[in-house]
Specification:
By secondary structure, the protein is an alpha/beta fold. Helix content is 42%, strand content 16%. Strand 1, helix 4 and strand 2 form a beta-alpha-beta unit. Bound molecules: ligand G3I. Ligand G3I binds next to loops.
């Protein structure tokens, strides 16, 4: 049976399963916990302010076994303009994870998109820049020893079009590959246990970008840096080709490292298909395909599947006012067909 046909059946089942669920009680709160069905850790991206919402906290703790900081473990939150650090929010995330028996995943230490004033001021400072870079990584990656199971050490290093690597403040001061190698070395120095990841997006839609990403991973390994896993963000849309996720996961896994489907969401793109049921079916199919792709790997390479946001209302795209619904749960916390599709795959 082809991927497309199996996924079509799966998404139809998923839609039917959701239709049957009890009205009133948000189905998500009653549905069988995903984390008890999944054969690998299942994560969710979390903003600490949402933990104050009891319904949110209960749904998160019920279904997920891993927590990724959506933004508060990044430089934009931690590094103040005067060069000092703040950890209140990441500590809240870590505390919630610990209290609920969830693994903590750190995202992200070094990202081209987060060139903060405290570093911009020392641009070109040579050893001064290198020392500050190391000190930042030691402070952040060293904060949750024994709790953080992994870190996205470098995020989105490959150029948008896949042709080569991004130029950024980090590469300008420490070298195109040098900043990546140093980041992994400093992260290992900070945390001897955490699995250290290279993470990027559009690896499903751009095979050139995937090749460049893999080539960088090989260079980092050849330099002796402790690269321990590859993250494919998997920000998809309902018009993502069937099989694209499977092909990407398979090729990335060829290096032999653990794979993290690290930021899975599927935009409904209301403009693409007029029929909402058809969009929800496609969304369910893609969530199912991502889970199947990870399940198709040897157990040692199935690091985790992380969704990027708990309920549609919490998703970052909704902040722009977009009528989007990319997650597993609707605004009320009800399980959507995508949730049922994941549960179906895990139950096989
Ligand atoms: O909540 C504060 C608010 O109190 C404050 O007034 C405001 C001032 O700027 O900031 C608000 O925080 C924002 C935060 O999202 C929560 O809404 C930050 O500014 C904003 O930068 C942050 O955006 C995050 C973005 O990465 C940049 O860090 C998104 O939540 C997050 O979903 C997005 O995630 C990225 C991954 O890290 C990498 N892959 C792509 C993915 C989606 O863009």
């Amino acid at each position: 049976m082809t991927i497309a046909r199996r996924s079509l059946i799966l998404s139809g089942l998923a839609l039917a399963a959701c239709g049957k669920q009890a009205r009133g009680q948000p189905a998500g709160a009653a549905a069988q916990p995903l984390k008890s069905l999944a054969p690998f850790p299942i994560g969710c991206a979390v903003k600490s302010d949402l933990l104050a919402d009891p319904a949110y906290a209960a749904l998160l703790a019920r279904h997920f076994s891993q927590l990724t900081g959506e933004w508060e473990m990044k430089m934009e939150y931690i590094l103040r303009d005067d060069g000092s650090f703040r950890f209140e929010a990441p500590d809240r995330l870590a505390g919630f994870a610990r209290a609920n028996g969830m693994r903590l995943f750190g995202h992200t230490l070094i990202w081209y998109a987060q060139e903060r004033p405290a570093f911009a001021r020392i641009d070109g400072a040579g050893q001064g820049f290198a020392d500050a870079y190391r000190n930042y990584i030691l402070a952040v990656a060293g904060r949750y020893p024994g709790q953080a199971v992994g870190w996205d050490v470098v995020n989105e290093p490959v150029a948008e079009n896949g042709e080569g690597l991004r130029a950024c403040l980090w590469s300008k001061n420490l070298g195109e590959v040098g900043y990546v190698v140093r980041a992994f070395e400093h992260a290992r120095e900070a945390d001897p246990q955490a699995v250290l990841f290279l993470n990027d997006y559009n690896l499903e839609h751009n095979s050139r970008k995937r090749s460049t990403f893999l080539r960088l991973a090989e260079q980092v390994l050849k330099a002796g840096a402790p690269l321990g896993g590859l993250g494919t963000q998997s920000h998809l849309t309902v018009d993502t080709e069937p099989g694209a996720v499977t092909a990407a996961v398979r090729e990335l896994a060829g290096l032999g490292l653990p794979i993290h489907v690290s930021e899975l969401d599927v935009q409904l793109k209301p403009g693409v298909l007029p029929d909402r049921e058809a969009r929800l079916r496609r969304q369910a199919r893609l969530y199912g395909e991502a889970a199947e792709a990870l399940m198709g790997l040897p157990a040692r390479q199935r690091f985790a599947l992380t969704v990027w946001g708990l309920r549609d209302r919490d998703h970052w795209l909704r902040r722009g006012g977009k009528p989007e619904g990319p997650t597993l749960f609707d605004d009320a916390g009800g399980a959507k067909p995508a949730f049922a599709a994941l549960a179906e795959v895990f139950k096989r």
